[in-house]
Amino acid sequence: MGTLLQVKGLKTQFFTQDGVVNAVNGIDFDLNEGETLGIVGESGCGKSVSVLSLMRLIPSPPGRIVGGEAWFQGRDLLKMSEEEIRSVRGNKIAMIFQDPMTSLNPVLTINQQVSEALELHLGMDKRQARKRTIELLEMVRIPDAANRVDDYPHQFSGGMRQRVMIAMGLSCNPQLLIADEPTTALDVTIQAQIIDLVKQLKKEIGMAVIWITHDLGVVAGLADRVNVMYAGYIVESADVKDMYADPRHPYTLGLLGSIPRLDAERKAKLTPIEGLPPDLIDMPPGCPFAPRCRYAIDRCLEENPKLETVARRHSVACWVDVTGGKR
């Protein structure tokens, strides 16, 4: 299984009237062919900005990718021309966004919106594109797809609109599907259906997936590997089983402690993470999580640790070994 995507030192900033927002601060990660990578963290930690940077969809101004490389099939996405990156978006790399109602055009039919990518990237004529659109809608389990293909987005429920977005994403058989919190706006039952659908389609098509969420519970049954982000940094990266069985970063421990567990005692309370995330314009000199961390030592307030390997395929950015003291 070869490496599909290799990100090195990705750094994205937003230049505002109040100052420079350090949204993504030099992150590194790899993604193998057919692998599912979960990126988790609370709102504002840089999850979405990191993948939007890869897709070159950062609004400029005020945003700017100020450093790094993103190698995809032997080419650096960050160095491509606008024409080259357009040929990749929706074709080799597809993206599903959080709110399908704002992602879909309300005045165009579903057929028009799905067919556009088929005509643009695969050179289909309108008849071929319509036939393929119906097949895609059937693939994502939309009932009576042939009769619903000319409906408008407002005629579909939230879960069905998200299925349409998945159909659009899969239309050109991408090697990589990026899902940016695609189930956040849906109720729990529909959320589970969408997750099961993506897992099944992944097996059928063989694509790699990057799934972005703030919920570690969602990632548990979906991802092969997990990157935990905080304040624009990856603070822990591990195979999903290792992440849950042996979390090594205090922030990961905090996230896991705030998830309801079926095997917990009835009286067991959820443990909140005290405090607030740092100001990304005025970042603290040491570890950004140190002010909220119950394991913090003096060094944490002075120096920000780098991501280092602590076990096979398990890396952590922390000066303290939460299983036994200082590193």
Beta fraction of the residues?
25-35%
Helix count, DSSP H or I runs of 4 or more residues? 12
What is the CA-based Rg, rounded?
21 Å
Q: Helix/strand/pairing class, anyone?
A: alpha/beta
Read across the widest sheet, the strand sequence of neighbours is 6-7-8-3-9-10-12-11
Identify low-pLDDT runs.
none
State the shape.
Answer: globular
- The succession of helices and strands, N to C, reads EEEHEEHEHHHHHEHEHEEHHHEEEE
What do the pLDDT scores average to?
89
Q: Tell me how many strands there are.
A: 14
How much helix is in the residues?
Answer: 25-40%
First-to-last CA distance: 33 Å
- Report the sheet with the most strands, covering strand number, pairing sense and barrel closure: 8 strands, mixed
Describe this structure in words.
- With 327 residues, this protein is α/β, with parallel strands linked by helices.
- It has helices at residues 47-54, 82-88, 100-103, 110-122, 126-139, 145-148, 158-170, 188-205, 216-220, 240-245, 250-257, 298-302, and strands at 3-16, 19-32, 36-40, 63-72, 75-76, 93-96, 176-180, 208-213, 225-230, 233-239, 308-311, 314-316, 320-321, 325-326.
- The strands form three sheets. The chain has an eight-stranded mixed beta sheet, with helices on both faces.
- β4 and β5 form a beta hairpin.
- The radius of gyration is 21 Å and the shape is globular.
Please summarize what this structure is:
The protein is of the alpha/beta class. It contains 12 helices and 14 strands.
